[in-house]
Amino acid sequence: MSNFFRSLRARLVLLLLLVFVPAAAMVAVTYSHQRQFMTAEMEKTVRRITGLVLDKEDAVIGGAQALVIAIANNRYAIEHEKKFCRVRVEEMIRGQTVYINLGYVDEHGNLDCSAIPAPETLNFADRQWFRGARDSGAFTTGEYVRSRLTGEPAITYGYPITGDDGTFRGVAYAATGLAWLAHMVATAELPPNSTATVVDVQGNVLARYPDPEGLTGKRMPRTAVIELLAERPDARVMKATGHDGRERIYSLAPLKVANRDVYLVIGLPFEAVFGGIDRTLRTNLVLLALMAAVAIGGFWIGVDRLLAGRIRRLADAAARLAAGDLSVRSARQGGVQELDQLARAFDQMAQGLEQREAERKLAERALRDSEARYRQLIELSPDAVFLQSEGNFVFLNVVALRLFGAEQQEQLLGRPVVEYIHPKDRAAVLDRIRILRDRMEAVPLREMRVLRLDGKEVDVEVAAAPFRFDGRTAAQVVARDVTERKRAQAELRESEERFRALVETSPDAISIQAEGRIEFANNALVKLLGAESRADLAGRPVHDFFHPDSRDLILQRSREVYQNSKAVPPAVLKLLRFDRTSVEVEAIATPITIGGRTALMSVMRDITERLTAERAVQESQAQLRGIIDSAMDAIITIDEDQCVVLFNPAAEVMFQCPADDAVGTLIERFIPARLRGGHSEHVRKFGEALVTNRRMGALGRVYGLRADGSEFPVEASISRVSVLGHHYYTVIMRDITERELAEAELRRSEASLANAQKLAKLGNWELDLRTNKLYWSKQIFEIFGIEDRAFDSSYEAFLELVHPDDRPGFEQAQRAALAGEARLDLEHRIVLPDGTIKAVHELGNLVRDTEGSPVQLAGTVLDVTERKAAQDRISQLNASLEQRVMERTAQLEAANQELQAFSYSVSHDLRAPLRGIDGWSQALLEDYAARIDQRGREYLDRVRSETQRMGRLIDDLLGLSRVTQSEMHLANVDLSAMALALFTEMREHEPGRQVECMIEPGIVVRGDPGLLRAALANLLENAWKFTGRREQARIEFGRTMLNEGGVLFMRDNGVGFDPAYAKKLFAPFQRMHKASEYPGTGIGLATVARIVTRHGGRIWAEAAPDRGATFFFIIPPAGETQELTNL
Amino acid sequence: MNSKPILLVEDNPSDIALTRRAFEKNRISNPLVVAEDGQEALDYLFAAGLHAGRNPADLPALVLLDLKLPRVDGLGVLKQMRADSRTRRVPVVVLTSSTEDQDLAMSYDLGVNSYIRKPVSFEQFAGVVEQLGLYWLVLNESPPGVGHQ
C-alpha cells in the first residue's frame, strides 16, 4: 500500500483530488446561504400576514364598538318595536363574515334581542362582556368563548345601555367570529399545503385554515409544534411534522386576541421552502463526484501513457549504452516536452561518445603516419636536428652529426649535450633544457657556439621545443650553422660604418627620403634645418621644409629624379628651418636604391651666408653712396696727386662749386693761398704715417676757400684707403662758422646765468640717471660751501651733505620724483663742511627722452636760510599775537558777562525802590490828603513824576544794552511792511493827529528782524514826536540812490535840529530839545545807531532847525553783512 | 469770589505792603499769605518745614510769584509746582520787575498762567492788581481740585 502511494501516479492523483476540495466547499457554502435566505423570506411572509391580522383585528374591534354603541343608543326605538329588533339587527349582519350576532340583553343579562333566533330565555349575566360593561359603564371586550347560540368560538363586545335617568338598563353586544382570520390567511397567497393557525398557549385553536378536520374551537392534538410552543414560546422558526404527518417549517408570531396571548402559526410545507435548494445541492454533489471520477480515470491513464512508459524506455536505453551499444537512441518526438529534452540530451551524449571513439581511431592512424613523415622530414632537413632527453642526445639527423663533427650517431647518443656547447653558452643551455623539461614550453631562437668533436667552434642558431620521444619527456632541437652569415654581416656592417662615417662627417647636409618622408638625415642636415636631433627629422614629410618660393622647383626636380632614375644638376633652393626662418642651399639630388625601393638622396650646402655677404656688400656700397650724397658734411676724396676724385653735394654747397667743375682739379683751389704749402706737406705726412684716419677736429682749426674767394673755418677729418696699391685720401669737412658764433653766445649766456644764480642764491643741477653723474652749477658749490674741484659730484656725495634728520624725507621725495609720481619739491637742511646749517628749497623735474623713458632729473636749489629765519620770527610773533587775542577775548567775555549780570540787576533791583517811592508818595497823597497843603501835593507829584522818568530811563538803557548784546538771527526783512505796521500802531494810539505817511513799498533787507524792528520803531517814534506841533505832519520812509549806492531814509517835516550837533545825535543821553517840549531819554537814536552798525551799516542825519530832519542809513544787502559786535 | 487765600511770593517788604494796599483798595478780601522766599512758598504749598501740619489739600486760589527771590528763585518754585500733581493746576501769575525776554520765555515754558511786569507807578500797579483779582478770583473757572472743593 505504501508503495502504491510512493508511485508518481498515485501522488499525482492525490494532487488532483485536492482540486475538488474548494469546489465541494463552495457548494456547501452556497447551500447554507440559500437556506438562510429562504428562512428570512419566510419570516418576512409571516410578519406580513401577522401585520395584516393585527390591522384587521383593530378594524373588527372598532367596528364592533361602533355597532354596540349604535344599538345602545337606539334601545328605545328597538324596544318600542321589539318585534322588529331581531329583523333590524339581522339586516345589519347579513352578508358579512365578521359579526356572528348583534343584539342586547336586559339589566339581568337576559337576552332581549338577537340577530340569530334564540330560545326564549337565555342569560348572559356570567359573561365577561356583560359584567364588564355593567360594572365599568364603558365598552368592554369579552372572552373568547364558544357562542351559546351558534356554538362557534366568538368574542363578544359589550356596551352598557342606560335609561334616561342614568340607570343601568342592559348591555348591547356584538359577537365576532374568527372566520375572517381564516379568510385572510386564505387570501395571503401561501404555497399549497400551507397552514395558518391561531392558537393559544394551551393549544386551543382559535382559528385555522384550512380546517378540514374542524379543529377550530377545539384543543389542538399534542403535536410537535404544540410541544415546541409550550417549551420555547420565544422560538420563531422551527421544523416539525404536523399532525397530518407532513413536514413543515413553522413560523410563529405572537398576537393579542381578546386580551389573550395567542400565536399565529404559519406552517409552510418543507418541500415548498427548502425543496428547491436541497435538490440543487444534491445535483451539485453528484456532478462534482462524477467529474472527480472522470478526471482521476483520465489522469491515471494519461500519466501512464505520457510519463511512465517513456521513463522506462530511457532507462532501458541507458542500460544498453552501459553495455557498450553506442548506437542506442531513445528520442521519440511528440511526448512531454521535458521528457523529450531529457531523451534528446541522452541521445546527444550517446552520439558524442560514438563520434569521439571514431575520431580517436582516426587520430591514432594519423599519428602513426605523421611519425613516419616526421622522421623522414628530419632526415631530409637542411638544418641540424637532434633530440635530447634529460639533456642527453637521443637522436641526431645527418646534418646534426656533421655539425658536431661525428660520423655515426653512436658517437654522441647518450652523451650530455652541454659537453658540446662552448663553455660561455653552457649556463644558458642548461637553463633552456630546464625550461623545456619543466614548463614544456618552446625556447626561442638563440645564437650560440658549439664545440665540435674535433675541437672547432661553430656559430649556430638554435631553437627547441618540447617533444615526446618513446614515451619520455624530450626536446627537439634545431640548429643552423650561421658562421657564413655572420661573416657576411660583419662585412656589411663595416661597409656601412665607413659609409655612415662619410655621410656623418660631411659638411654638406645629406638626406635620404622615400615616399615624401625623410628616412635619414645627417648631422649637417640637423644643423642646417635647426632641429635638435635626428629624431626630429626622421619620418617628417619633406615638404614641411620647402620654402614656398622653391616648392615647385623642388617637386619638379624630385619627379625628374624618379622618372629618369638619374641625378639632377645642382640648383639653389630655399628651405624652411624649424624656426620657420629660411635658408638657402645649393642642392643636388640622386636616386638611390634601398631595400629594393627607389629613394632619393639629396646633398645640400648652406649658401645663405655667401648670398648674405654678397648682398651686404651691394647694400653697403649703395648705402655709402647715399651717405656721401646726403651727408651734411662736405666729403672730398683726392688721389696721391692731390687731384679731386669725389666731390659730394655738401661740398658743392660749402665751396660754392659744382662737382663737375671740381672733380679732376687740384685740391689746392679750395685752400687759402697762405695755407697751401702747409697743406700739401700735411697730406704727405699723413700719407707716410701708418695712420689710416684722424678724427674730426684732430687736425686743428683749418680754413676753406670758396669759389668767390671768401674764407671760412672748418673742422675736418681725414682717412686714407689703398686700392690696388694707390692711396686715396678722403677729407670730411664741416663749416663751423655758426657753431663758433653759438659758442660765443653760450659762453656769454652761461656767464650771465651764473651771475643770476649768484644773485638769487639759486643753483641748478642735473642728475644723469644712466651714469648717476650729478652736474652742479657753480652757485650750488657756493651754497654748499664746497671748493669746486674737491667734490665728487654724485648723488651719494650730495646726500652726505643733507642734514641727517632730513635724509629719509629727501630720499622719499627723490624716489617719488624718479618714479614720475610727483615733482621734487621740498625744503630741507644741509650741513656745510664747516658745520654751518643752511635751509634749501629743492625743486626738480623728471626729464624723459623722446621714447618716454626717464633720462635725467633736473632741478634747482634755492638758499632759503634767510627766508626761513624770517618766517620763524613771523610765526613766533603770530603765536604770541594769538595768545594775546585769546587773553583779550577772555577778558572781553568776562566783561560781557558782568555787564549782563549788571543789566539784569538793574532791571530788577533798581526799579523796585522806584516803585516804593512812587507807591508811598501816592499813599501819602491819598491817606494824608487833608494834612498836606497844595504845595506839598505838588512836591509829591513831582517826586512821583521823577521816579517814573527814572523808570523809563532804566528801561531805555536796558534796551540799548540788549541791542548790543543780543545774538543776531539773520533773515530777509520787509522793512516797508514793518514800517507800515508800526505807523498804523501809532496812529491808533494817537488818533487825533493828522500825519501824512509815505512808505516806499518793497524794501527788503537781510538782518535781525527784532533789532531792525526796534530801529525802525525808534526812528518812526522820533519822527512822530518831533512833528507833534505841525498842523500837517509828514513822515516819509524810502530808498534813495546816493553816490555809494542804495541808502534808506526816514524823513519828517518836524522841528529839525541844528546840524552843528548832528554828530552828538547818536550818543546816548544826548538831547537836542528841552524835555518839557519833547520828553525823552535821549537813548533812542543811540539804539538805532547801534543796530545799524551791528548790521555793518552806517547812519547819519541831515537837518536844519524848524525844517525837518532826514535820517539816512545803510543796511548792506545779504552776504555783505558782517556782524560787528561790541562797537 | 471765593475766600481761599492768595499766596504772594515776594521778598521786598515795600512791594508786599504795596500789594497788600492794592488788594485792600480793590476790596479783594481773600486772605493774603506771604512767602518771602521760594523755599517758604514751596513749604507752604506742600505743607512742609514751617508749614508742616497744614492741610496740603488746602491750596491757594492764586499764586503771585516774583522771580528774583532768595534761596529758590521764582522759576524754581514754578518748576516744582508744575512738576507736582497736587499743585500742577494752581493758577500762577508771575509778577516781577524783570522784563528780560528770557525770564518771560522760561516762565511761559514752565506753564505760567500770566506774566505781569510790575509797573513803577503805583496807580498802574493797583490797576494790575484789580485786574488780577477780577480775572483770577471772579471770572476764571478754577480747575477741578483747586478752589472749589
Would you give an account of this structure?
The complex is a heterodimer of chains A (1127) and B (149). Chain A contains 28 helices and 38 strands. In chain A, helix 27 packs antiparallel against helix 28 (1084-1094). The longest helix of chain A is centred in the first third of the chain and has 66 residues, at 8-73. By secondary structure, chain B is of the alpha/beta class. Chain B has 5 helices and 5 strands. Chain B has helices spanning 13-25, 38-46, 74-83, 101-109, 122-139, and strands at 6-9, 32-35, 62-65, 92-96, 114-117. In chain B, helix 4 links the parallel strand 4 (92-96) and strand 5 (114-117). Classes of the chains: A alpha+beta (1127), B alpha/beta (149). Chain A binds chain B through residues 904, 907-909, 911-916, 918-923, 944, 947-948, 950-951, 955, 958, 962, and chain B through 12, 14-15, 18, 21, 67-68, 96-101, 118-123, 125.
Task: Please write out the topology.
The complex is a heterodimer of chains A (1127) and B (149).
Chain A: H1 2-6, H2 8-73, H3 75-80, H4 82-93, E1 99-106, E2 111-114, H5 128-136, E3 140-146, E4 153-162, E5 168-176, H6 179-186, E6 195-200, E7 205-209, H7 224-231, E8 237-241, E9 247-257, E10 260-269, H8 270-322, H9 337-380, E11 384-389, E12 392-396, H10 398-403, H11 423-439, E13 443-451, E14 457-469, E15 472-481, H12 483-505, E16 509-514, E17 517-521, H13 523-529, H14 534-537, H15 551-564, E18 568-576, E19 582-594, E20 597-606, H16 608-630, E21 634-639, E22 644-647, H17 649-655, H18 659-662, H19 676-688, E23 693-694, E24 702-705, E25 711-723, E26 726-735, H20 737-760, E27 762-768, E28 773-776, H21 778-784, H22 795-801, H23 807-818, E29 824-831, E30 837-848, E31 854-863, H24 865-927, H25 934-965, E32 971-974, H26 975-989, E33 995-999, E34 1004-1007, H27 1009-1026, E35 1033-1042, E36 1045-1052, H28 1084-1094, E37 1098-1103, E38 1109-1114
Helix pairs in contact in A: 2-8, 8-9, 24-25, 25-28, 26-27, 27-28
Chain B: E1 6-9, H1 13-25, E2 32-35, H2 38-46, E3 62-65, H3 74-83, E4 92-96, H4 101-109, E5 114-117, H5 122-139
Parallel strand pairs in B: 1-2, 1-3, 3-4, 4-5
Helix pairs in contact in B: 1-5, 2-3
